[in-house]
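Below is the data:
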Amino acid sequence: MWGVMRYRAWSGSLHLVVALLLTPALSGQIISTSLWQQAKSGDVNATRKLAQAYESGKGVTADPAEAAIWYQHAANAGDPWAQTKLGLCYLNGVGVAKDSSEAVRWLQRAASSGYGLAQLNLGLAYLRGDGVTKDEAEGVHWLREAADQGVADAEANLGVLYLTGLGVAKNYRDALEWSQRGAKHGSAVADCTLGSMYEFGTGVAKDSSAAESWYRRAANQHFADGEYRLGRLLMSKPGADLTEATALLRDAAGKGDLRAQFSMGLLHEQGSGVPQNYAEAAKWYRQAADAGFAGAQLNLGTLYESGHGVPQDIAQAVQWYAKAAEQGLVPAEWNLGVAYERGSGVAQDYVKSRYWYSLAAQGGDKNAQNSMGRFFYLGLGGSRDRQLALQWFTTAADQGDPNAALNLGRVLSDNSASEADRVAAVTWFEVARQRGLDPGTALGSLKGQPTGMQGEAPAHNAS
């Protein structure tokens, strides 16, 4: 069994919502013979109603493919709302094969006729590079066109752009103004942006009560980002109502919010707000991990490593660490380095171990920095370089790592040591002692090769 890092952080960064669904302009109704006849005769209003009925399942068995066919009829007749709906069908692969280019084609037709919701979604497509070459300036243009018509989510997304500096110069005053306009017109996206600004004091005075109020407005619209943010904020409050917070996170997780799914896994693993249940933790982690959430991939790996909630399977653990590490998650890079060094779940490979330790070390992980010192000093997985070993040990020791301090003392008292090195070695041995490691006989006998490099702590939680 070998120790691992886990990912424990609650995400508090701004979440740009770019996949917005349209609220149908017409409600579904019972399909009558006359409605069928009107739709077949080319009546656009009847065609839209028929498409909505198939989409919603009101008055007929829901059939996304049939809905797309009737939206196509209305779109071909020039109806901008149907063109927008058809564009979103292609964008999301609902009722038709997913085709981002075809989606953009329909959105462009509707947007060019001045339809605000199409302009909003076309702007988002340009910002994402979805079905069209990514063009932030063009994306901002179409969002402005929609915002000038009072489309709430266009105003809200402009607020996000000014807050983050995407496609425009970062400007907190404009971010606040556009977000307030969007919130006034009912955008939950704007509510979340305003909540984020007040939570972190970005462009406004920090005010957790105001942040909670804005997040609650979004959550009351059953908006997943608002539910997640409010749940996370409530969890962090002293004397928090964990019941409400957990319910909010569960609702957001059920809507597919990956951060909320990860959070539910974390709560079940820790037994915070819910009974500790490793199997339930594994279930939530897996949902987020399968969708590519790096933190969930890492923590699911730790469950496989420990056998908590799932059958113990070190090879499976390493596979999940690898998925997270490939996304640049530093604790996963460290775990993968340990696996390759020790041959745990994979064939022992010092070259690969050195590679992953190097990435984690560059990412600031002190254990990995200490490991890089060991690898350079001993020549594991590559060339031996005493000077680089000293640099990595020093970097790790300066972060408070006791193992690195002990290793510095050993290297500075080896056969290559100068008198100045040996004096410095005494200092580092004393530092290691003060940090809880006994240098043994090294303080009294600063000669000969070190008996071995001090390894990493057996377990470590990432913050």
About this structure: Strands lie at 5-7, 460-462. The CA atoms of residues 18 and 124 lie 6 Å apart. DSSP finds 23 helices and two strands in the chain.
